[in-house]
Specification:
This protein has about 350 residues and is an alpha+beta fold. The protein has 2 domains: about 190 residues, no CATH class; about 130 residues, no CATH class. Helix content is about 35%, strand content about 20%. It is built from 12 helices and 14 strands. Strands 2-1-4-5-6-7-3-8 form an 8-stranded antiparallel β-sheet, sandwiched between helices. α6 runs antiparallel to α7, α6 runs parallel beside α11 and α8 packs antiparallel against α9.
C-alpha cells in the first residue's frame, strides 16, 4: 500500500501579528471514508498537480527551510514532525485565508519516497467545537466532508532524502482564476518556492514552438497559429503552457499537434509559466505572408490584419486573395537574397 502515514491538523491563521493558536493534530486511520478521499488525492497528484515549482536556495548555500522540515518528516513520519509543517503553514497564513485543515500524506512508490501536503478551507465557526489539546477523526470527517473538492496540494517524490526533493508540483482548486494559477502565499511563503519555468524562459519556448509549427505546417494550420499569435497579447500575466495555449484559442487538433511536436519533451509542453508579452513580441515581432506572385507582406503581428485588408477574388476556382494597404513611404531598401 503506497500511503503509509496520514496526519491531520486544524491550522489557524498566524501571520500579521496577534497570538498564535496552538496547532492541534491527529493521525488518520488508513481505512474509512476520510482515508478513501485522501488516498484519491494522493493517487491523482501524479497528474492533477500540474504546476512545477522549485525550492529557493538560501543565500549563499544550497539549503531551504521548508524542504528541511519536509525531508525531516519523511525520515520519521511522526505526528510531531508533521506538526512542524503545520506550524509553518500557520505562520504564513493570514486572516484572508482563514481557518484550514492540513493533511500530510506520506508513502512509498517503489524505491521513491512520496509526500502530499494538502490544505482544505473550513468554517471558522467550528472553532467552538475544537478540543483544546486534540482533534478526533469523527470531528475531522464532519468538517472535512463539506469541502472535499476544494483544496490546495503539493506533491514531492524522489529516491534520495539527502540530495533529492528540490522540485515538486502544485495544484490550487480553491481559486476561480484561469487554470494553472496558484496562491502566492502557498508557493512563495509557505513552501519557500518559485515556479520552475521563469516567465521569459517559458514564453520564449512557446514562441519558438509557434515559429517551428508555422514553418512546417500546411496553409490552413499556418493561418490558425498565426491568428493565435496575433491574439496572444490577451494572455499577458496569465499562466499557460504550450498545451493550454491551444486550448485558450480553440485551435484545431492538427494545429495543437503541430505546436506540441515542437516542444522538446511532453513534459515541456505541459509545463506552466507566466506569459511575458514583451518577451513574446521580441520573439515573434512580425507576421509575413508569401504570395505565389512573389510578393511578401510583412507587418507587426499584433496589427497585421489592420494594416493589410484582404478580399476574396470573385473567381471561386482561382482561390486568389486580393490585399490592399495604404501609407506613406518612410524608407526603401533593396535586400540581397541569401
Amino acid at each position: 500500500m503506497p500511503v503509509q502515514h496520514i496526519q491531520a491538523f486544524l491550522v489557524h491563521p498566524g501571520s500579521g501579528g496577534g497570538t498564535k493558536v496552538e496547532v492541534n493534530g491527529t493521525a488518520v486511520p488508513l481505512e474509512g471514508p476520510m482515508y478513501a478521499l485522501l488516498d484519491g488525492i494522493y493517487q491523482r497528484s501524479v497528474y492533477e498537480c500540474d504546476i512545477d515549482i522549485t525550492f529557493r536556495h538560501a543565500e549563499g548555500r544550497q539549503q531551504n527551510a521548508c524542504r528541511d522540515i519536509i525531508v525531516a518528516h519523511l525520515r520519521g513520519t511522526t505526528i510531531d514532525t508533521a506538526r512542524i509543517i503545520a506550524e509553518r503553514l500557520r505562520d504564513n497564513t493570514d486572516r484572508r485565508s482563514g481557518l484550514g485543515l492540513l493533511f500530510v500524506i506520506a508513502g512509498r512508490e517503489g524505491a521513491n519516497h512520496k509526500i502530499v501536503v494538502s490544505r482544505f478551507p473550513t468554517d471558522s465557526a467550528i472553532y467552538v467545537d475544537e478540543r483544546a489539546r486534540a482533534l478526533t477523526v469523527e470531528f475531522l470527517e464532519r468538517v472535512f466532508m463539506k469541502n472535499k473538492a476544494s483544496y490546495k496540494a503539493v506533491v514531492y517524490e524522489d529516491r534520495s532524502l539527502q540530495a533529492g526533493f528540490w522540485g515538486g508540483r502544485v495544484v490550487d482548486k480553491q481559486l476561480n482564476n484561469p487554470v494553472g494559477q496558484a496562491s502566492d502565499y502557498w508557493i512563495t511563503d509557505f513552501l519557500l518556492s518559485e515556479f520552475s519555468a521563469t516567465p521569459a524562459h517559458g514564453t520564449r519556448r512557446l514562441a519558438e514552438a509557434l515559429k517551428g509549427a508555422v514553418r512546417k505546417s500546411p496553409l490552413e494550420v499556418k493561418q490558425e497559429l498565426t491568428a493565435a499569435a496575433t491574439l496572444a497579447g490577451n494572455l499577458a500575466g496569465q499562466r499557460v503552457s504550450i498545451t493550454t495555449f491551444g486550448d485558450r484559442f480553440h485551435l484545431s487538433q492538427l494545429a495543437r499537434e503541430a505546436l506540441i511536436r515542437e516542444a522538446k519533451t511532453p513534459r515541456a509542453a505541459e509545463e506552466q509559466f507566466e506569459f511575458d508579452i514583451n518577451e513574446f513580441r521580441n520573439r515573434i515581432a512580425y507576421k509575413s505572408l508569401e504570395l505565389d506572385n512573389g510578393a511578401v507582406l510583412t507587418a507587426e503581428s499584433s496589427i497585421f490584419d489592420d494594416v493589410f485588408h484582404r478580399r476574396a477574388v470573385d473567381d471561386v476556382a482561382d482561390q486568389s486573395i486580393e490585399f490592399s494597404t495604404r501609407g506613406r513611404i518612410l524608407n526603401e531598401k533593396l535586400k540581397i537574397a541569401p
